[in-house]
Specification:
The chain is of the alpha/beta class. 49% of the residues lie in helices and 13% in strands. It has ten helices and seven strands.
């Protein structure tokens, strides 16, 4: 029988690419998105594929319930991909509390809401996969993006603990950790226009931007994340964490190889030459 997958946050980027990739590899895909006015790109790309677009705002219980009610008409969900997410890129002092909460409502609580919707059926059937799209920032605390990074750490934690809880039931939980991918997540964030050249945090904000610029030069596309998600779902050998991209691999291994104090001290008054040299040495990333 055709397996059923539900993917959240599918209007652009990783969610769109993942929906198409799963549909092309034998899954009947329900592509959830908050704003159906943005569905044209996916609808056009998915012509003739087994893919249905459903309205789904993961921050609203009624919207989430309605989306799952539609999918259940076709049968139980075999794969849940928690991809819906929003970004935030300013220092903590400059980030309003309501913005911090909004990031968690989508990136963490939205995923938890979806997991709780599918888990009873998966447990009872003794089968199913839950995919959490976190970030390399779920592995390494990133200055200038504390709400985003903290939400991804929280989802990483939930995924790891849940994997332990449901292993005995035959349910697979995986965390996908992309590096810098060519998407619009931070461009569309509420903090995108808050860069201030006079801010005392300006050096940190600028250097965080350089890290993303280095990633954009590499040009990693959402499709590589989609390919990794399919591999994580179908590989016979289970693995919890799946960093995606050379920068994610570099930061994943590099951060674990240095002392916490070495990482924290990079927030000091370093010259660009010194800072860039340490980034290259620790993480293999040329800023």
């Amino acid at each position: 029988m055709t397996k059923i997958a539900l993917v959240t946050g599918t209007s652009t980027g990783i969610g769109l690419a993942t929906s198409l990739h799963l549909a092309r590899h034998g899954y009947h895909v329900y592509a959830g998105m908050r704003n159906l006015a943005k569905a044209d790109a996916l609808r056009e790309a998915a012509a003739s594929l087994p893919l249905e677009i459903v309205e789904m705002d993961v921050t609203v219980q009624a919207s989430t319930d309605a989306a799952f009610a539609i999918t259940r008409q076709a049968g139980p969900i075999d794969v849940l991909v928690n991809n819906a997410g929003i970004g935030a890129a300013t220092p903590l002092e400059l980030t309003p509390e309501d913005e911090h909460r909004a990031v968690f409502e989508t990136n963490y609580f939205g995923a938890i809401r979806c997991i709780q919707a599918v888990l009873p059926e998966m447990r009872e059937r003794g089968a199913g996969t839950i995919v959490n799209v976190t970030s390399m920032e779920g592995l390494m605390a990133m200055p200038n993006q504390i709400p985003y990074s903290a939400s991804k750490w929280a989802l990483e934690c939930a995924g790891e603990a849940l994997a332990h809880e449901v292993y005995r039931f035959g349910v697979r939980v995986v965390n996908i950790e992309p590096g810098v991918i060519m998407t619009q997540i931070f461009k569309n964030s509420a903090s995108a226009t808050r860069y201030d050249r006079e801010s005392p945090y300006q050096p940190i904000m600028r250097r965080n931007g350089k890290m993303f610029s280095a990633g954009f030069k590499a040009g990693a596309q959402p499709e590589i994340v989609a390919e990794t998600i399919l591999e994580a779902i179908e590989t016979p050998g289970y693995k919890l964490r799946w960093p995606v991209g050379e920068d994610a691999q570099g930061m994943y291994h590099g951060r674990r190889a240095i002392a916490d104090e070495d990482w924290v001290s990079m927030g000091g008054d370093l010259s660009d030459e010194d800072y860039n040299g340490r980034y290259l040495k620790y993480f293999g990333i040329q800023l």
